[in-house]
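User: For a benchmark we're assembling, each entry needs the component sequences followed by a predicted structure for the full assembly. Here are entry 17's components. Please fill in the structure.
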Amino acid sequence: MKILIVDDSMTSRMLFKAYMPKDGQHELFEATALPDALEKMREMRPELVVLDYNMPEYNGVEMAQAMLGAGLKAKFVLLTANTQRTVVDSALAVGFIQVVEKPVNAVKIAALLAQVA
Amino acid sequence: MERVLDSLVHTFCVDCQQRMQRVTDIMQSGVPLSCTQLDQLHQEFDTLFGGARAVHLPEMEFFFRSMAIYARYLRNGLRDGQTIAQPAWQDLLAGIAMVRRCGDDMSLCLEHCNKHRSTLLQAIENRINKGDTR
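Assistant: Structure for entry 17:
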């Protein structure tokens, strides 16, 4: 599965990569901001897009809206340390399939991939 | 897994220094700080709080969480057109300077600046408890 992770935090992107199963089944791409993410979506056509919520300029939900507005379809997952009801609701309203609480670990990522597969 | 964690801590330190440079630029771009600049500071500290938690550095996690809370607290205390006062600006700057001195070794920094960090966080907590928003 092609996966795009969009997070301005180098640490979070690396953590996600470190905990991804090393089974050769998945290809991970990274982006740090909206323009980069849109470009990677057009080029790589990921099936799953994992977005951080707290980012400068646009939050993860706003980015997903921009992607959908540009006609780019994928399954969206929100990563956040902020699981306030308003954040979760705004994500679900846009069509996110899941909200995963940060920090991620191997168990959370495995569960996520199993759900998406 | 230990090697992965070491690598993650190193990445966090690099990330941290880059963000501290941005935060320093924000601090120097317009004194005193506006609401927008405090929002940017909050975003940077909050991201580092998440990063520190991810790489199991609880002292830094607590520190960045406190700094993020303080930036949000100061921002919420400002009305349109208001700016923060010099003591609050100095608290923020002291916290940033402390992190920048850590360089690439956050664990070493934690040992060296433990007392300084506690003093700063206590001062911030006192300011918040007094309701001193400016």
